[in-house]
Each structure stands twice: as structure tokens, then as C-alpha cells.
């Protein structure tokens, strides 16, 4: 089992609450306050989990500047009060930032009993 430091445990909690508030804010018709709290908690939790320096290095790599601009711009747009436009910008930036992790996540999900059998269906599975 992976051992976590206390700050990483706090970061996991903050990130989890951030995702919860983002999800809940979208369910409640893009509630500005919940989305803003979710954004702040998510970014703070990420900084706690991987560390402040590694967070800055991740977001501000030269080839990820466009993605970072969309993601942080979306956070800013949500904070100033335009939640739907902000969430669209955030989602686009999120996919650009984390697109390298998606194959790893899909590979992990394929090993889960029920979800793996669904992802291995012929019309879902990518052609070899």
C-alpha cells in the first residue's frame, strides 16, 4: 500500500471536496458559489498532493501553456460570475492538460471486472 504524508492526505481531502462541489454546482444549474468553491478546493488539493513546486512545473510547462490558460482562465471566469462559459473553458483546458493520463486511466479501468468488460466490447474498443 502507498503511504501518504499528512499534507498529501489533506490534499486528497481537498481535491475530493473540490470535485464534489464542482459536481454539485453543475447539478444545481451551474451555481456560481459552489463552482467557485470547488475550483479553489481542487487546485489547492492538487498543490497539497503533489507539492507546490511540482504543481507550478506541471501547469507552466512551455507545451502546456495553452491548456493552462484555458483551465485557469475558466476558473477566473467562474469566479467573476459567468459559470457556464467558465466551466466550458475549464473542461477544455482539463482535457488538454491531462490528455497524457487518459490512456493510463483507461488501462486501469479495463482491469476492473464490470467496467473492463464494457470497455472491451468490440464497438467501444479501439482498433488494434
Q: How does this model look, in words?
A:
By secondary structure, this protein is an all-alpha fold. Helix content is 75%, strand content 0%. The protein has helices at residues 6-27, 32-50, 52-59, 65-80, 83-98, 102-109, 113-119. Helix 1 runs antiparallel to helix 2 and helix 4 runs antiparallel to helix 5. The chain is globular.
Question: What structural keywords apply?
Answer:
128 residues, mainly alpha, 75% helix, globular
In short, what is this structure?
Keywords: Golgi apparatus, Membrane, Transmembrane, Transmembrane helix. By secondary structure, the protein is mainly α.
Number of helices: 7
**β-strand amount:** under 5%
For the biggest sheet, the summary is: none
Q: Spell the H/E element sequence.
A: HHHHHHH
Uncertain spans? none
Q: Which shape, going by the Cα principal axes?
A: globular
Helix-strand makeup class: mainly alpha
What is the terminal separation in angstroms?
A: 33 Å
Integer average pLDDT: 91
Helix-residue proportion: over 70%
Please tell me how large the radius of gyration is: 17 Å
SS elements, strand count: 0
Amino acid at each position: 500500500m502507498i503511504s501518504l504524508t499528512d499534507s498529501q492526505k489533506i490534499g486528497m481531502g481537498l481535491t475530493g471536496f473540490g470535485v464534489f462541489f464542482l459536481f454539485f454546482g453543475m447539478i444545481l444549474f451551474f451555481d456560481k458559489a459552489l463552482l467557485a468553491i470547488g475550483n479553489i478546493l481542487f487546485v489547492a488539493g492538487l498543490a497539497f498532493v503533489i507539492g507546490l513546486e511540482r504543481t507550478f512545473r506541471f501547469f507552466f510547462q512551455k507545451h502546456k501553456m495553452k491548456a493552462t490558460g484555458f483551465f485557469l482562465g475558466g476558473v477566473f471566469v467562474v469566479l467573476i460570475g459567468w459559470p457556464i462559459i467558465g466551466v466550458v473553458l475549464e473542461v477544455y483546458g482539463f482535457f488538454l492538460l491531462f490528455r497524457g493520463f487518459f490512456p493510463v486511466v483507461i488501462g486501469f479501468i479495463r482491469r476492473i471486472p464490470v467496467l473492463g468488460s464494457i470497455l472491451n466490447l468490440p464497438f467501444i474498443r479501439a482498433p488494434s
